[in-house]
Amino acid sequence: ILIQYTGTGSGPRYPSTQVTLPSANQSSIVSALSSNGSPKIPSGPYFLSSTGALYQPYRLYSDFAGAFTQPLIPASNGSYAALPAALPGIQSPAVGVPSRLYYTKTAAKPLAGVRLGIKDIYDVAGVKTSDGNRAFYGLYPPRTVNAIPVQRLIDAGAVIVGKMKTSQFANGEVATADWVDYHSPFNPRGDGYQDPSSSSSGPGAGAGSYPWLDLTLGSDTGGSIRGPSQVQ
After folding, report:
1. Which of 14, 201, 221, 229 is most buried when burial is the number of CB atoms within 10 A of its CB?
2. Cβ-proximal residues to 116 (8 Å cutoff; 6+ apart), any chain
3. Which among 2-6, 106-110, 173-177 has the top mean pLDDT?
4. Angle at Cα 92 formed by Cα 189 and Cα 173, nearest 5°?
């Protein structure tokens, strides 16, 4: 069903957990709505169960450029969790994105509905930070709070869809000789095998490859944003 207005009545019964409906196919997942004490329902597409519960679908896109380390989905406590989904393809994790129809930009939320990828040097609550290094990823538990730049983007309404590749500890690396723990992202230019530069290569490759990805968060101390930006 498509809800085209915001209701203020009693509304449907809201489930409290995320679920996958039997009717969902390989290119969609669903997330249960939470009422948050308000009966208002955002405009947009929903699955309606036989019990009257509404579920927001997510569309799945293939990360064919290898730009992401970990696609994410919001958890019920305000943190994030890894998205347990995949699409056909070679080393192509699925990135889930919600409909933009659910969000309305306001003065307080100028980035409402903007799909955001986070360079994997920034902490995101609920998941680990790798800094582009497998050993570092295994050394520390999941983070409990968001990094300040991440939180500010969330507060402005941005929607996190995943964490994105970086060269190890944000050092400059050349594809593919220096990439050991993770394969370098693929540069969307030319034949797809040009060096994507670093260290914000994941955000750069994702922004250049995916029209469904609106914004990426990188970092720059010696050209780590400028390099990927100019070659992709």
Report:
1. 201
2. 153, 158, 159, 160, 161, 214, 215, 216, 217
3. 106-110
4. 55
Strands 47-48, 54-62: pairing is: antiparallel
Confidence category of residue 13, pLDDT binned at 50, 70, 90: very low
Q: Is residue 213's pLDDT more than 90?
A: yes
Residues paired with residue 115 on neighbouring β-strands, in sequence order: 159
C-alpha–C-alpha distance, residues 56 and 205, integer Å: 28
Distance in angstroms (rounded) separating the CA atoms of residues 44 and 204: 30
C-alpha torsion angle, residues 45, 46, 47, 52 (rounded to 10): -140
Q: How far from 100 is each of 32, 38, 110, 111, CA to CA, in Å?
A: 17, 20, 13, 11
Catalytic residue set? 119, 200, 224
Query: Which pair of structure tokens corresponds to residue 133?
Result: 């290094």
Q: Considering Cα of 133, then 221, then 120, then 139, what sign does the dihedral take?
A: positive
Tell the burial category of 35 from Cβ atoms under 10 Å away from its Cβ (0-12, 13-18, 19+): middle
Token pair in block for residue 158: 């941005």
* Cα torsion 20, 22, 27, 32: sign: negative
Handedness of CA 76, 82, 87, 93 (dihedral sign): positive
Q: Is omega for the bond preceding 224 within 30 degrees of 0, making it cis?
A: no
Pairing of strands 159-164, 215-217: unpaired
Give the residue among 15, 6, 19, 62 at the shortest CA–CA distance from 34: 15
pLDDT (tens digit per residue) in 180-212: 999 999 999 988 899 999 999 999 999 999 999
